[in-house]
Amino acid sequence: MIGIKVTITKYISDEPQPGMVEGKFKDAWANEFIMVAKTAILSSESLGHDSKYPRDGFIACEIVEKWTDEKGRRLVRIDLDSPWGVETIDGLTKFDLEESALIHLS
Among 33, 35, 51, 77, which has the highest number of CB atoms less than 10 A from its own CB? Predict the structure, then answer.
């Protein structure tokens, strides 16, 4: 499974279980995006109010497209809607990232 790194910035609530956290990441154009998701979607750790933030996290995604831009950067367009139906607080699911931002999730 493919994913991207996110920074988990804070714990939002205990409901729905196992709890909700805020995550942030930047696209290839340095735009920052914010999402709110269940702790189990953004981390393999058990997170709560007493956990230390910010901390590293991840989100699974699907690669939609790959290309090289005019500066020679290898870019990918990802979709967060697959596999876990995640979107940003603005309702966005597709983003352009540098290919090096991808990670392999086990």
Answer: 35
CB 54 within 8 A of CB 101: no
Per-residue pLDDT tens over the stretch 4-48: 999 999 999 999 989 999 999 999 999 999 999 999 999 999 999
> Rounded CA gap, 11 and 48, in Å?
6
Please state, in angstroms and as integers, the Cα–Cα distance from residue 81 to each residue in 8, 25, 68, following that order. 19, 16, 24
Cα separation, 21 vs 61, whole angstroms: 18
Taking phi first (over 0 means left), then psi (-120 to 50 degrees means alpha), and beta for anything else, what does residue 89 get? alpha
Give residue for tokens 């540098």: 98
Name residue, tokens 């950067």: 73
pLDDT for residue 106 is more than 80: no
* Structure tokens given for 35: 């999402």
Q: Is 52 helix (H, G, I), strand (E, B) or coil?
A: coil
